[in-house]
Amino acid sequence: MTAEENCIERMTAGDEAALGELYDRLGGLIYSLVLRILNSDREAEEVVQDVFVGAWRNARGFDPARASVTTWLATMARNKAIDRLRANRRRLPAPPAEPEHALEMRDPAQNPSEAAQQEDRRTRIENWIGELPPNQRQAVELAFFEGLTHPEIATRLGETIGTVKSRIRLGLDRLRSKLKGGVE
User: Fold this and answer.
1) Which residue of 13, 20, 97, 116 has the smallest Cβ count within 10 Å?
2) 153 located within any domain
């Protein structure tokens, strides 16, 4: 059992300290992901809070056979961030994203060793995304970091929806095989 899985198990038993530990371990990574999608510190902080409140409320729903804790939280974060991004698009046009800013958040209370591990994980994932074939990388980034739907990506790229779905699936399959090799 990983330390993160232990936190989830303790959360299901009502241990509030476990939620704090889980946040200390993964909060910076989740924040970086959300900030990259939303490009707003304030909104990213709100979404991260929603993610960890959701993790507390739904800890019993976590299934280690389906995903790691990191993947479970990142999926929740991505979905909440994209929902917020789409709601914002209906209200105001979004400014262009600044990915280099999105990756600089650090929790000053975080253990330096854990911070280094988190930074190493983030760097490896970033590198693996960069190693995808250009058409797969572009489709994955538009879907996961800009929150575009498959039809929106198809329109932007001038491709069919089927082609877009295939590129995203192939890209995610490549990333998944890399992740199974040791990031989580």
Assistant:
1) 13
2) no
